[in-house]
Fold these 4 entries.
Entry 1:
Amino acid sequence: MKYEKLTLKNGLRVLLIPMPSLESAVLTLWVKTGSRFEDEKISGVSHFLEHMVFKGTKRRPSAKIVSAEIDSIGAETNAATSKEWTNFYIRSRVDVLERSFDILSDIVLKPLLKASEIEKEKGVILEEIAMYEDTPMIKIYDLFDNVVFKGSNLARDVSGTKETVKSLKREDFISYRGNYYYPENMVLTLAGGFEKKKALSLIEKYFGFLEPTGKKPLSASEKISQAKPEAVVKNKKTDQAHLIIGFKGKPYGWEGRFSEAVLSTILGGGMSSRMFIEVREKRGLAYSVRTTVDHALDNGSFYTYAGVPPEKIKEASKVILDEYYGLRDKTKKVTKKELEKAKEYLKGHLALSLESTKAASEFFALEELYLERPQLPEDVFRGIDKVSLDDVYQVASKLFLDERLNIAVIGPYNSKDLKLIDLTL
């Protein structure tokens, strides 16, 4: 898979990802800002703004008109907010690509942001926050971030708090957009069966009008210190305890990224991974168990999630930690067969995902947003192939340090129950 990168005169970076066999294309505008760049008093504004772009523009003055026009061309649209980026996309047939450009450009770059609509949407956001609070399988990830990134803006929930959402005013949105929604801080991706000449013309027509600011894309550098293991427990009456055990990790694009990916796969990627076999198959402690790696501009995390019976949480914690430390200390060796299986798992899942225009856009866009030099899938495959057994052990020894351990739990416990969970305190 190939891509082409170009930069408009206003500084907007554009990635063209041709997939010529397709009859559809997805157009996505990525803005390099999210919850970590917000002032604490307006926490949640990035996510709230994601909602507001669909509420109308001067040319399309209501949410109903916006949605009706999107439906009229058989397209789909949505948006997402993370701690460091926000994106907005529209996916349609290539025959109506100009309509997609027109709609996306209009709603994202020229939203009305009516005060009355902001007040109405507050109720929607508050219900979304309540939904996550009532869904511990989702909320546990926020709780883990609260502890692993303690003292950093990365610890904030993307949705903000009920108090900050209620306090947001129209001027907060205007100011925030002015600070962060500038062309040099954006990336536009187009993936699918488009015709290049037409695409270039549409890009200039619908995004070339943005005024350059001369500013650089946002960056972040927060030093998060941790001298001892940390644990947090959220008391909630549940039939299942939700547990994440992990470690403070590394930033996006660090030199051990491929070894780290292989390590994560060996531990908790797929139904033949170590965590799945030990926690679920051998002991029946969980239905869902998986290991994940997250990266930020300057930090990261490496963790395992499991949903377990409340009375079995100590046993599950010990099993998970034993797998971590067994690799770190080389008491649980990785075989060559296991190493090769993990590599093929990673390459195969990446190849399958890239058949989707949305996944292809994300693959290249994140590389551009974080590193400003997207890799090709073939580069990733080569990087994975080069990982050796020694590389896996070396990364495990760097990541799985006692003092970098963090544990988050949601279940029918209180703070006195910490000793049941954190085996190192």
Note: The radius of gyration is 23 Å.
Entry 2:
Amino acid sequence: MSKTISLSELRQIKQSLPEGSTRRIADELKLSVDTVRNYFGAHTYKYGEAAGFHYEPGMESGIVVLDDTTILERALQILAEHAPKSVD
């Protein structure tokens, strides 16, 4: 399933991840770390693959159409794991 997201929002998710999350996602999904970085907008195609990432310039640094949301979904799960727990 594809998803459209702004590049700035995608980068904010990456920046919000706890240290080591890129490696964790790569290991869990059996991808290179550079492929995961490329998914979040890096350009190290020499070392990793382009991860189904289509970019269109525009507002908020442009938009990205993600062909596969697996990496994004895993990143959001990690963020949820580290979110402060509410006290009722």
Note: The radius of gyration is 13 Å.
Entry 3:
Amino acid sequence: MARRGDRPPIGLTWIVTWPLSAAFAALVFLAAEEIHHPAREVAAPPPAAIGGPDWSARFPERIAAVDAALHKAPLSLPQPVEDERGSGPLRWTHRLYQINLPRAEQAQAEAAIEAVRGADPGLGVTAENTADGTDVRVGLDGLLVSTLRFRWVEAVTPKPPNPRVAVVIGPLGDDLRVARQVVAIEGPVALGVRPFRPFSREVAQLGRMFDRDVLVQLDGSDWQGKADGGQTGAVPGPDLDALLASVPQAVGVAWQQGAGGKGQKPDRRWLAEVERRQLLFVGERGKAAVLPAPALITEAPPDAVAAQFGAVLEKARSDGSAIAVGTPGDATLEALARVLAEWRAAEIDVVAPSALAHAVNLSAR
């Protein structure tokens, strides 16, 4: 029997302390596990990817759908300024649209943007007023994909086009010196050249050298003679091939009634041939004429001639355009040089006759 105070055997001591050591070790292990692995009831779930597992793959096509919706809206979007955004696997194109609109259309623009909201459930639209407009930012799932930069401008009434006047001076062809006086006038004054005259070809070449319209100028005497015996009883007109050979590089024909009203007017078949050859016709033709009917400027003192040109100007202001045909007399040329300068100062456009015939393709003669 062991005495009091004697130490227990070593084996017994180990047997007695083992349960305590095992319990302590278990507590330490459980505490460590708790630190590394919190209890299930307080653990936060892992965050889910925005929009689903294939969100980044579908993001570009969602942007394209939103952009298509913007273009369907009645906004008349201009070409955007594009820049690439994002990094890594998530990259997209941001589009900046700069739009100038009258302030009166602001409500319609806001309604058009509002209608785009249904293009995607993740679409967000915010607006910020600036000093001269509004910036509308369009985002998908919080990422900016488009910016519409509206600049509100005051509506400006468009200025009506300037009245346009064309002037033809003729007949020329008997005196080359007179033709030189005409081309010396500043402005696109057209040359009316009488065919088969001593200097017809030279005057036509001079006109083309100075970039002026050249027209074959005829009058009622060119239709004098016996009728052709047809149902119309019309006098055949002069041969166009011969006319154009006498006045080379002519872009059309100018006709005026002869002195005293003698002779006949061009017949329909002859005018149809002029049209078939895509030549201009300056003369009285009725309502279907491509060019306005010309006003004849008669030779008179300079002030009286200027008054006639004034009447032509009033016609241009009322109708938009007018054509004047004047003779190459000294008074007419003096008055013409003066009124052309006045017209330019008054924002009257002096143009060549061919400029008034946009629907006609001039022949390259």
Note: The mean pLDDT is 80.
Entry 4:
Amino acid sequence: MLQQIYNANLKPLATSLLVFIFLLGIQNKGIASNLVVNDTIGFIQYKGIVIDSKTKDPLVFAALSVNETNISTISNTQGEFLLKVPKKYSNKRITISFLGYTSKVVDFSELNSNKITIKLETHIEELSEVKISMKDARSLISEMLKRKGDNYIGDQTMMTAFYRETIKKRRTYVSLSEAVVEINKQPYTSNRSELLRLFKARKSTDYSKLDTIALKLRGGPFNTLYMDVMKNTPSFFDDDMFDVYDFEFDKSTKIDNRVIYVVNFKQKRHVTEPLYFGKLFIEADTFALTSAQFELNLDNPYKASRNFILKKPKKATVLPIEAVYQVDYRVKNGKWYYGYSRIQLGFKINWEKRLFNSVYYTTMEMATTDWHKIKKEDIIKYRDRLRSSIILSDEAQGFSDPEFWGEYNVIEPEKPIESAIKKIQRQLKRKN
């Protein structure tokens, strides 16, 4: 369920994106049996890490794309990646790019498929001195919106994407759901909604760690797809945005050797409703939005909480403590398209007559891993369409063996997630 943040006259730059469900009572601790899917092994797997060449720090959310194809993936929060490439493309090259760094193009023949370290270098030139052709940031935003039809894909496409959502109680992972989804992506000039189909899904949840509450996410992949701000322009960049937000230039940067303007935005001082603040990254030559990173203003958590909670126990107060959003676009043949989005949320639950509170964190992320112009047989039939109210953890069918995903690209799981899953599986085996 998607909810707008409104007061009497104002709309924000973005809407709140999901709803939490807090239900009293211990949930069913059973977990569905694993679903084993046999896929054709016609691909080569490459696993490695992307780092800064000087500091050796991991580069988080670096993009990896197979040249002359639509196959791509992204590194995780530890810079690690897993890329599966059909054998027929083994003669292609791979491009690794990251905001503010020089992109690197590598032959697959140069890569060791076991453990790869890719080092990227920062740009040497002083980008803060790049001449800004627009007279002010507001004019740049207006030009960005005006050129949406020219800059983004104008065809209906069939996208394959990987989606993951996690829930942590403080520092311990208690739930993980993953899915491969197929998306009928509408042209960026169209007002029609995207259609989604669940292709594969799995979950692992340890409800014994959730006290007397089950925390569930409603909307699943719809939440991350809604972060495509250039497709959902009216909800993010509406007619009132210059009345409620201030925009100003920051230091410029580069990606794929293209100059990128950086625009900071935040709500005006007179606006009391919780809105957003962050950065927009806009290509200098075409004025296309390449990335957006922002947070919800939580100075008044009681007001902000109205945008997240669908149901909760009467004796509990639920307040947001973190709300961070990101969307990245990729480009092919001069046209940009949705590539990746991520939502990070944190909540504190205060109970009446309890000394200690409960703190939960959740992350949702989705990456496009392949796409092509839609064909007649690709159109998702009504009976197969996902509902926007889906709770993925209820739909998934258990956690499977490592070969479950076959040839499909995924975001490499972080080590804490892997450890948590193994621990949950051991606990479930003992209980059974």
Note: The chain has two domains: 19-27+133-431, 43-122.
